[in-house]
Design goal:
Bound molecules: flavin mononucleotide
Structural class: alpha/beta
CATH topology of the largest domain: Rossmann fold
Shape: globular
Distance between the termini: 11 Å
Helix content: 40-55%
CATH architecture of the largest domain: 3-Layer(aba) Sandwich
Number of domains: 2
Radius of gyration: 16 Å
Order of helices and strands: EHEEEHEHEHHH
Strand content: 15-25%
CATH superfamily of the largest domain: Flavodoxin domain
CATH class of the largest domain: Alpha Beta
Number of helices: 6
Number of strands: 6
């Protein structure tokens, strides 16, 4: 099975996960940045990695996802929220919904990724006290918890998930 990993990453979190995913699929493989506009016609499995932008794949990843036809596809993503949150689940559903119906979605993986300080500062400016998205204790804790992600455990989980997926697809 010939696979390719295509990734969209703004601050490097998803790129880190992409390295683990590519390694799991083929030890010699390197992920390709979506900006390189890869030709995927020769690949059986296209794995797309994206950072989460307002509950969905970011625009670059979304445009790439929408361009795919007749492929087995899998996705991975990083987000500021916890990986086991409802929001994370919804983000995956939103991404999966963007594939053309000729594609078969065979897997998905999501983990937390640090939110850049620039973004945190912007959120504080945009959402002052009293606003429903204003900083609160839970948000501050989640951002602090996220600072070290993706961590070694996330990368191991990604490797294990995609190794199992590869074995399943090749069996
Ligand atoms: C403009 C913007 C929008 C974001 N929207 C969300 C969101 O809706 N949900 C969420 O959990 N994280 C959100 N995040 C956090 C990023 O998805 C997260 O930090 C991600 O790991 C960044 O990945 P990257 O380093 O590969 O760019 C947002 C970040 C930015 C900058």
């Amino acid at each position: 099975m010939k696979s390719i990993v295509v990734v969209s990453s703004r601050t490097g979190n998803t790129l880190k996960v992409a390295g683990a995913v590519a390694y799991a699929l083929d030890e010699k493989m390197e992920a390709v940045k979506v900006e390189e506009n890869p030709d995927v016609s020769d690949y059986d499995l296209v794995v797309v990695g994206t950072w989460i932008d307002r509950g969905n794949a970011d625009k670059k990843a979304a445009d790439f996802i929408k361009s795919l036809r007749n492929k087995k596809v899998a996705v991975f993503a990083t987000l500021g929220a916890y990986a086991d949150s409802e929001h994370a689940q919804k983000c995956i559903e939103n991404i999966v919904a963007q594939f053309d119906e000729s594609c078969e979605v065979v897997g998905s993986f999501i983990c937390q990724g640090a939110v850049s300080q620039k973004m945190v500062d912007m959120m504080q400016r945009m959402f002052p006290e009293g606003h429903p998205h204003a900083m609160n204790e839970a948000r501050i804790k989640r951002l602090a918890d996220g600072k070290t992600h993706p961590d070694e455990t996330d990368l191991t989980n990604a490797r294990e998930y995609f190794t199992a997926l590869k074995n399943q697809l090749e069996s």
